[in-house]
Structure formats: C-alpha cells, structure tokens
Amino acid sequence: xSNDDYMVxxxxxxxxxxxxxxxxxxxxLADAERIDPLVLEQxxxxxxxxxVKPFRLKIVADVDLPNDSGLTSYDGCTLLTQIPRRxxxxxxxxDGYARYTIAHELGHATLHLDKLMxxxxxxxxxxxxxxxxxxxxxxxxxxxxxVFGGAFLINNERARHLSSPEEISVQAGVSLQAARIFxxxxxxxxxxxxxxxxxxxxxxxxxxxxxxxxSPLYLTDLCSRCGQQKLFPVGHKFMCQACDAVYDRFQDxxxxx
Length: 257
Hints:
Blueprint: H1 13-26, E1 45-48, E2 51-60, E3 68-74, E4 79-84, H2 85-92, H3 96-111, H4 113-117, E5 122-125, H5 141-153, H6 156-159, H7 165-172, H8 176-206, E6 231-234, E7 237-240, E8 246-247
Helix pairs in contact: 1-5, 2-3, 3-5, 5-8, 7-8
C-alpha cells in the first residue's frame, strides 16, 4: 500500500505553475484553452524537472485500483501513470474530477522523479489523500501535484481575465475546487504585486532627493602652492580645491598647513 503523501523538494506555488506551463509548451499545448488530458495516451515522453523522460499513461481495470483514482510510479525506465477505466470514461465525457485526476498524476511524474526513483508510488485516493501535519505545503507532493493539475489544465492568460472560479471551472473543464484554488492563488499574487508596487511608490516619495553639487565661490587670490585660483573659505580657514592645501591666511607669506 502506497503512502498518501511524501515530503519532496520545496517548490512555491508559482514555481509549480511555471513547471506546468513549461510542460504545456513541451507538449505543444501552450495556447490551448481546453486541454483533453487523454492526449497523454499518445505521449511517449514528457519534460520533467530532471529533463525529458519516457512516459506512459496506462488504462487499467477498475479492480486493479479499487481505492485510487490514479497512481504514478517509476518502473526503472519509464514514468508510469495508471488510471482505472472508470476515470478514463469520465474524463472522456468531460467530468472535471476525472480530467483533473489525470493532470494531478502528471504533476507527480513531472515534479517528483527523484522520489519515484527511490521506489515511491504516488496515488490519488478516491476518498482524498491525508497529509501528515509535519509536512509543510511547499514540501508536500500532494499539494504540489494539486497546484500542478489546475495549472496544466487551465490556460493562465485566459483565466486571469475571468471573474470567478465558476467561470474558470466551465472554461477549463476542471472541478470547482481546482478552479477555486487557482483563482485564489492568482488573486493573492496580484494583490502581492500591487502591494509591492505601492511600497515602491511610497519609497520614492519619502526617499531624500539628491542634492545638486554647487561649486564654491572662489577668491580672487591664487593658491601659493599650485598657483590656481581655487581658494575658498572653510570656516575660519581657506582651502584650495585643486591641491587641497589649507591656509590660516593667504597671500601674506604664511606657510601652508
């Protein structure tokens, strides 16, 4: 029996989404508004965080995965994602959960090769995966795959112009839960970006303005050391800007300090 979740290399949500977009580009699906995840049945290799690797989407009998909606593993050569026939059928007719399940498992194949090569098998439980409290989200294989699944199926540029998770769910053909996760993350990023820009503007407003250099008003007398007319008063003394000589008095024969 496989574990419900694993601790993996840390990735931020934005990093995961960028990896999903990179895989879309690799599969020539970058601009697709609605991806059919069953195209993976024809795919023999995918881009992963460890480079391009052999891949196979395998349909198995329902009895082979009675408690799981999908399972990703590594057989020593190929990244293998298995889904039961019932999930393939539901994905074929456009069910959001089934479509998202395939993309979720693809996320494991793309992001978690190191753990899979160590013998881990990563399922998607029908009743939901349990994650231990000691695994933070950014190191959770399940959380990363969850973010990846939505980012792979959802056209990022198109979805950013939609006004609600419900619209995203319909447009991308994903579950409402997946659409909500994507929508909330995008809203959070936009808010953070706006806040950063506001702080930048405030910093510019309160930053001290550079003081323009004003040339000193030189005396008519010449410096007795360098002979240039560069003498100017500094408190109760006089200084030559050209040679840095300092005088108590000037033009009276006193030596330079």
